[in-house]
Amino acid sequence: MAVGAALLTILLSVAAVLGSDYSAVPPNKAQLHSWFNQNVRPVNERKSTLDPALVAAEQGRRVITVRKDGTGNFKRITDAINSVPSNNNKRVIIKIGPGEYREKITIDRTKRFVTLYGNPNAKPTLSYGGTAEQYGTVDSGTLIALADYFVAANLIIKNTAPKPDGKRKGAQASALRISGDKSAVYNCRILGFQDTICDDRGYHFFKDCYIEGTVDFIFGSGTSIYLNTELHVVQDSGIEVITAQARQSNDNTGYSFLHCAVTGTGSNTFLGRAWMSRPKVVYIYTNMGNAINPQGWSDNFHPERDSTVFYGEYKNSGSGANMVKRVKYSKELTYDQAKPYMTLGFIKGSSWLLPPPNV
């Protein structure tokens, strides 16, 4: 009996771990809050399933402050980041006071476990006007997070460069680049035009965000979930494109948009374009407004990519979600086809994803 009870305990523990990764997002948006709390529990409740390095980092966390008026530890965000030691192994929360910080900010690969945190009721603004002409597209970002286990919460991140007019060379301008693995962004406004977010590589999670742009305003090779996030299309003179996911092989990278909203004006926005040969993008339980072109997707004038893209939709709503005129190479998914993209298992969340910080 004792052996049987012990085995049952083990099986239940395994089920709990799997459940944290493989419980599908509910179709009812009103249940999202409870679903998230059940699946993304605090570190002290999940020590056995989390990366050991993450558990150790969270147990030794410290907070430093940045305030423009000089009442914090630093006046500039860059100075606070510079104070984090190379090969950092403890969570450092940089609590940023209100106001606008005009800085081009980079978190080096050696500075893991950095959190940039703003007051949700007085979000600080991180702004800079870097362009592709000056820095190259991926290095033009106002905030570039190269390190693993990065977290951003309650921030406004924007690139202030002018909207590209189709004439100026290198006018693309990113607001945010995330190149570190196991990184999360909570309750942030991310503002730009072309190439707003370089969702570069690694497992990433965005929740309760607002992302604004014109063309390819989410691009890169990340493996990412966007949950309850507004994708706001700024009307351009030509076409608008939300995603340019850069998958080129049969790997598992891709973007999953769950319970999001596509807003904006115009009627010529594509959900994604085949910038590279094998992009993977799915929209699930997402409300799509009038801005969406009825065809939905673009092969980027490469018809040979029609057979290699993975563009899927499941149970979306709104006038832009009508599948009748969709391109033939897009997929109206079944539940079983959609489910792998409806769970935190898509980003291996049980090993690293934690609730938003509370400082």
UniProtKB/TrEMBL annotation:
Instruction: Copy the pathway line from the protein's UniProt record.
Output: Glycan metabolism; pectin degradation; 2-dehydro-3-deoxy-D-gluconate from pectin: step 1/5
Q: Where is the active site?
A: 216
Q: Pfam families in the record, alphabetically?
A: Pectinesterase
Its predominant location is secreted
Q: Does the keyword Secreted apply?
A: yes
A GO MF annotation of the entry reads: pectinesterase activity
Q: Where in the cell is it found?
A: Secreted, Cell wall
Concerning PROSITE patterns, the annotation shows: PECTINESTERASE_2
Q: Which GO terms describe its biological process?
A: cell wall modification; pectin catabolic process
Q: Which residues form the Pectinesterase catalytic domain?
A: 64-349
Instruction: Please report which protein family the annotation says this sequence is part of.
Output: Belongs to the pectinesterase family.
The name of this protein is: Pectinesterase
The organism is Morus notabilis
